[in-house]
């Protein structure tokens, strides 16, 4: 399946090198002549056909292209088009190719955390996801460091735990813009300690778990800000760090967040590869809320793929897993946001994607009326997104008044929250409302949000 992404990797590579299509094609033609004894055409339309997916370059042209981009031509046949192009991004190569060892994890962690300036495309090819999950499942865990650095213990771990918990709640209230920088600062500090300090095996595992959580949080913030490639790089390093810690629960959580990014960007099959890989370790997942979240993400991926029966089975599995959970105080602090109300919101979103607005509204109502409801006070950003989807369900049923009521509530909850996800959801709602712009109240709302 082709992944729907912001841009084709070749288009981004041309931009990075400041090459026009013709400039690039001339370089490829020269390299092809040197390798094969014949030149190739240099009409700029070739590049647009390659990046649109309508034509795949001949293998000898791809090998000449790899030469131009500084990639070993042997990778062309090994990885296929367009997957080998990802190797031309030096900053992604470390994350994708570092060994799945503690040292490789530190190397990958050190390569993330810069400014969120990459919207771009998905970093990992769809076909590589299952293989990465298999590497996660078999990677060696951390061992006590042999450096002569300062000895640190569990007290440092506790301090980082406290700081990350505060950052999670800060993100809920003010959005991702401010929280990203703070999360990456924590990640850099944790990574530095992993590299330079000495610690016991127990403390080392805890530090890798903290690195996984910090990278996951940074990934979520980047994703919420609309920076897809940066987000995926963080989710990949979070999975790597969880592997080094031997903490399958942290890894499953990171895989669930990564899956969210994949199905939102048009790759539900890749998302399911990630989720199913995490669920293969169910016996080692100690948090019932993480397990419920995995099934909820599975439901969304199936709904994005149009697989109705599988989506609703996953909804039932999510609710069943949550019913087996104890109080939030007995679960992981990072899972405070997973409530029965949250799961009903996901179920509603899945039903809406599957074209069942009545069923969606029943779940939206259950999210608020359940004895363990969705917390609209603590989840301003999420509330805005789910209210927009509620409005879409009302629109699908022709109830314009109810749709507008929810739409105005969206604006109340978006006030003061920095979130590209919320903004894009509002844009989609406005697009749907435009078909009813002959109604005065709709005109007023569109004018208010212009």
TrEMBL record:
<protein>
    <submittedName>
        <fullName>Tetratricopeptide (TPR) repeat protein</fullName>
    </submittedName>
</protein>
<dbReference type="InterPro" id="IPR011990">
    <property type="entry name" value="TPR-like_helical_dom_sf"/>
</dbReference>
<dbReference type="InterPro" id="IPR001387">
    <property type="entry name" value="Cro/C1-type_HTH"/>
</dbReference>
<dbReference type="InterPro" id="IPR019734">
    <property type="entry name" value="TPR_rpt"/>
</dbReference>
<feature type="domain" description="HTH cro/C1-type">
    <location>
        <begin position="47"/>
        <end position="76"/>
    </location>
</feature>
């Amino acid at each position: 399946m082709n992944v729907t992404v912001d841009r084709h990797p070749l288009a981004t590579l041309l931009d990075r090198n400041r090459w026009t299509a013709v400039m690039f094609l001339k370089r490829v033609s020269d390299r092809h002549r040197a390798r094969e004894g014949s030149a190739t055409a240099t009409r700029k339309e070739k590049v647009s056909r390659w990046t649109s997916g309508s034509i795949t370059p001949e293998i000898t042209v791809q090998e000449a292209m790899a030469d131009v981009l500084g990639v070993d031509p042997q990778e062309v046949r090994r990885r296929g088009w367009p997957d080998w192009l990802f190797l031309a991004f030096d900053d992604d190569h470390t994350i994708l190719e570092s060994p799945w060892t503690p040292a490789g994890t530190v190397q990958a962690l050190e390569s993330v955390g810069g400014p969120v300036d990459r919207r771009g495309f998905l970093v990992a090819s769809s076909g590589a996801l299952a293989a990465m999950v298999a590497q996660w499942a078999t990677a060696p865990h951390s061992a006590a460091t042999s450096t002569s650095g300062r000895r640190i213990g569990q007290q440092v771990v506790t301090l980082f735990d406290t700081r990350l918990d505060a950052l999670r709640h800060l993100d809920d209230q003010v959005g991702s813009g401010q929280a990203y920088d703070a999360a990456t600062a924590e990640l850099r500090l944790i990574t530095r300690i992993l590299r330079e300090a000495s610690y016991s095996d127990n403390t080392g595992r805890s530090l890798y778990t903290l690195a996984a959580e910090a990278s996951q949080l940074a990934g979520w913030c980047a994703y919420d800000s609309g920076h897809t490639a940066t987000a995926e790089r963080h989710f990949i390093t979070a999975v790597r760090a969880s592997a080094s810690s031997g903490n399958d629960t942290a890894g499953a959580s990171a895989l669930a967040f990564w899956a969210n990014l994949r199905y939102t960007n048009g790759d539900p099959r890749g998302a399911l590869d990630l989720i199913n890989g995490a669920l293969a370790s169910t016996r080692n997942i100690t948090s019932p809320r993480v397990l419920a979240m995995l099934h909820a993400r599975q439901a969304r991926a199936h709904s994005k793929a149009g697989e109705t029966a599988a989506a609703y089975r996953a909804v039932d599995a999510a609710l069943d897993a949550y019913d087996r959970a104890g109080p939030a105080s007995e679960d992981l602090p990072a899972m405070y946001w997973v409530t029965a109300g949250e799961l009903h919101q996901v179920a509603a979103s899945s039903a809406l994607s599957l074209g069942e607005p009545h069923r969606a509204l029943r779940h939206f109502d259950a999210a608020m009326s359940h004895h363990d409801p969705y917390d609209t006070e603590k989840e301003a950003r999420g509330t805005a997104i789910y209210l927009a989807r509620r409005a879409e369900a009302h629109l699908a049923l022709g109830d314009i008044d109810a749709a507008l009521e929810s739409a105005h509530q969206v604006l109340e909850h978006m006030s003061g929250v920095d979130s590209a996800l919320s903004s894009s959801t509002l844009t989609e709602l406005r697009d749907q409302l435009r078909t009813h712009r002959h109604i005065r109240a709709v005109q007023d709302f569109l004018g208010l949000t212009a």
